[in-house]
Q: What sequence folds into this?
């Protein structure tokens, strides 16, 4: 079982068509066909693990509202342990990102969320459940969306508690120092450059310097840096491994980072080495960007890609 800790978001998609411009303002009028929801934010990592037939447990906060109830229900349908999902009454609604999509293109997105730091009592409850589930886990993913669950102090407590196991982090630059001692971080180029205090130049030499600096600064085992059209770079402490991009039509990059960290961690947890895991993670990301909306990739899709 892989533990996933972070910011739970409900991804809402409003699908429709556009045939005219509003007479009230120069904006398209979307005729709505359907509305659907998907687990998003850190919970999208759980969706990806489920697609990989990898058991999971989710840790995070939702509101005492209908979307929060839906999160618990959906996690149950994915057979993910939701005992670490705390329902907050009154003061913290469930985060929702709503995307309006017409003719296969996103027209607009609007967010309803609470981003203040979680209360220490919530962190204490999360740690209690973590202590119960950790003995049955094979790895932990810290999925940091910067929405208040993974504060620097809480991240440090988690990494101290989880030492000896696999700790994978999808990072936010503002929390850089807190990730010291993790197994691997999986930033994109702009995030990695900000974390290292360097320019985001997408050439091999510069990327290698960024990866090496982060590896040393944060005392990591690996840095897995995603580079958009240039593929990925894996630094293992002694050598950089460049993984070229896989040709693919790109429809939507939403959630691709969740797929990368889910696949890479699942591979490490089952005993693969990092150099085997990284190309599989890259292939998985190439699969999901070819789909519209927050998507996942199954092993069969990854291996045949």
A:
């Amino acid at each position: 079982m892989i533990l996933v800790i972070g910011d739970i978001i409900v991804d809402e998609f409003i699908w429709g068509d556009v045939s005219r411009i509003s007479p009230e303002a120069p904006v398209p009028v979307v005729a709505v066909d359907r509305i659907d929801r998907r687990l998003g934010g850190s919970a999208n990592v759980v969706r990806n693990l489920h697609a990989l037939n990898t058991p999971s447990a989710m840790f995070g906060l939702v509101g005492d509202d209908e979307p929060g109830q839906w999160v618990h229900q959906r996690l149950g349908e994915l057979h993910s342990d939701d005992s670490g999902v705390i329902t907050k009454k009154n003061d913290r609604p469930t985060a929702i990102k709503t995307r309006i999509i017409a003719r296969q293109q996103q027209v607009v997105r609007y967010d309803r969320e609470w981003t203040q730091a979680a209360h220490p009592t919530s962190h204490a409850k999360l740690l209690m459940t973590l202590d119960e589930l950790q003995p049955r886990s094979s790895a932990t993913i810290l999925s940091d969306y910067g929405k208040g669950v993974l504060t620097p102090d809480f991240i440090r407590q988690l990494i101290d508690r989880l030492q000896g196991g696999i700790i994978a982090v999808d990072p936010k630059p503002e929390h850089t120092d807190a990730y010291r001692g993790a197994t691997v971080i999986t930033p994109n180029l702009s995030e990695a450059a900000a974390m290292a205090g360097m320019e985001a130049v997408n050439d091999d030499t510069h990327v290698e310097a960024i990866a090496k600096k982060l590896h040393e600064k944060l005392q990591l085992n690996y840095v897995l840096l995603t580079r958009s059209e240039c593929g990925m770079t894996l630094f293992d402490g002694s050598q950089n491994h460049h993984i070229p991009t896989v040709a693919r039509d790109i429809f939507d990059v939403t959630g691709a980072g969740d797929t990368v960290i889910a696949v890479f961690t699942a591979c490490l947890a089952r005993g693969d080495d990092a150099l085997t895991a990284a190309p599989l993670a890259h292939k998985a990301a190439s699969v999901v960007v070819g789909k519209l909306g927050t998507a996942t990739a199954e092993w069969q899709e990854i291996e045949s890609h």
